[in-house]
Amino acid sequence: MKAVVVHAAGDVRIDEHPDPRPGPGEVLLAMEWGGICGSDISYFRHGSTGTAVLRHPLVLGHEVAGRVAAVGPGVAGISEGDAATVHPATLVGDPRVPDRIAGRTNLHPCVRYLGSAALDPHTDGGFSEYRVVRADQIRALPDGVSTEHGALAEPLGVALHAVHRAGDVRGRTVLVNGAGPIGSLVVAAAKHRGAAAVLASDVAAPALAVASPMGADTTIDLTDGTLPDDVEIVFEASGAAAAIGPVLRATARGGTLVQVGNLPGSAVSAVLGDLVTREISWVGSYRFVDEIDDALLAMRDGLDVSPVITHRFPLAQAEEALLTAADRTTGSSKVLLNLTG
């Protein structure tokens, strides 16, 4: 089979791998679509993402969907031909966590994630024609949800988790700073969860053009505008260290700021006085627990992710797809790979 493999910074190839076979308790997926994430871009551009450093060739991709091609011994309730996406996380070691984070599997101290170099050996992802996963990682797509949209269940799950971290957003005004793929999905998730009004801000007009059909009631171009004041719930989705001060100032007294954009792993400079004098609750949001299931239900119930998809490439053009996703001047938001070969 063909697979999208990053060998080093700037070196991505379409490699031939042996066709996999499912073992006991496993399922073989014939992949159809994969969404390019910021971590895929970072491995391609830098050979690392955060503290995860590429030591060996790695198959990219954790936003994937396809159809069941075969099931291994002992697998029940899953049939060949079923459309499905994949929960990409696998807990490593003792599954128990302290009571204070009971049930929050995303905070387990050691997790293998599809398409990740965080552990050695690395965990190959799903940008390949076939992928074997455990049966308990399979999430069947509801009727009416295509495999193309199913590939976005993982990032939509990230967005829904961020909204969950904010508390009850029903009837409230929400600001999402950073209208990239995750930010635009946070816009949609907040509206789905009942936010009365959603404002989206960014320095890129094409990103704002995506945020609007994803549900933003108002867009703010920060090249010639400023963030509003006194917003009760703010999501910082740009991951830009320079945004910390402005979004803190935009957050109302006693309000909540959810940090969903991944900040640099190095020290950053920021003025944090507003955090104290406004008594702002600044909370982090990391991946998701089971919100990938909520994402599928949301799409079944009418949440339309189509506007966030701006480009589609065949598997053979994976490098061009990565370059397009990395270049904001292309107007790209979510870039998809057709993995059918």
TrEMBL record:
Keywords: Metal-binding, Oxidoreductase, Zinc. InterPro entries: ADH-like_C, ADH-like_N, ADH_Zn_CS, GroES-like_sf, NAD(P)-bd_dom_sf. Residues 181-292 form the Alcohol dehydrogenase-like C-terminal domain. GO terms for molecular function: oxidoreductase activity; zinc ion binding. Its cofactor is Zn(2+). The keyword Protease does not apply. Residues 23-143 form the Alcohol dehydrogenase-like N-terminal domain. Pfam families: ADH_N, ADH_zinc_N. Transmembrane segments: none annotated. The keyword DNA-binding does not apply. PANTHER family: SORBITOL DEHYDROGENASE (PTHR43161:SF9). Belongs to the zinc-containing alcohol dehydrogenase family. This is L-idonate 5-dehydrogenase. It comes from Pseudonocardia cypriaca.
